[in-house]
Amino acid sequence: MYFEFHWADSVLEKLDARDLVAEETEAIVCHPVRTDVSTSTGRPVAFGWVADGRYVIVVYEPLDSVTVQVITAYAVPEPRA
Description:
The protein is α+β, with helices and mostly antiparallel strands. Helix content is 22%, strand content 37%. β2 (34-37) and β3 form a beta hairpin.
């Protein structure tokens, strides 16, 4: 999948505080291991691993058919097999 990303400074600051970078979250959204819908917000979510081995959820908002805005991202427990 290919998306253009719209970044808010506040989101980039949140990612930095969680030792994540925009490129990692973009890669997860474009090539997710798993996708779902957030039970709390109804927004789409994508899951994947970052280079240091953390399993991360990315919550995002589609702005149009090719543009998304990342809302937040953070490490979560790995799924059990």
